[in-house]
User: What shape does this take?
Amino acid sequence: MSDDAPREEGARRGLTRRSLFKGAGAAAAAGAVFRSLDASAKDDVPAGPRTQGPGKAKLTLQVNGQSREVQAEPRETLLEVLRLPLDLTGAKPVCNRGQCGACTVWLDGTPVYACSVLAVEAEGRKVTTVEGLGNPDDMHAVQSAFVEKDALQCGFCTSGLVMSAAWAVGKHGPDLSEEQARAACSGNLCRCGTYPHVVEAAIAAAKTAKKGG
Assistant: This one.
């Protein structure tokens, strides 16, 4: 077969080297246009969470009513950042897998497991820890009731239970029922078995609270 045979075969099929290059050039040009249009369309989309990582980046967290700046990696949980470097050790790293509730905090007023929330997800949101409820000199009603009703023993679960019970008291106020108190604390495990006293403490605190407060 002569060297011109492949060319002749391509010509019979309507395909030549020139037409091939022309087609490839047109495809590349079209791709560039569509990429440009796609980029323009993306410019109209509201910006999502800013890209961070893989190393540490500066985060600004609203914790217990204060703006706190930290350096954290995108993989770090809210629990890790609260404890180190913010030194808020009330939330406990017990199971570290979202099952025991010892690390319960409020995120925008709702109880969450801090070990199951990334610190970057909490940026710009209101974080409340047990330290933000009260202190020994000025305790929250639930904290005082936990002492009065002997609702704590080893203490590992206590801060998480306080946060869950305080949320229920704030939501229902004096109308808080035993069933509602139990439901609010159902995600918190206590190896010492102080559940009955926890419920008693929540009910006692609710009697002095205002609904929604």
DSSP finds eight helices and five strands in the chain. The beta strands are 57-63, 66-72, 104-107, 110-113, 126-128. Confidence is low (pLDDT under 50) at residues 32-37. Residues 17-43 form the longest helix (27 residues).
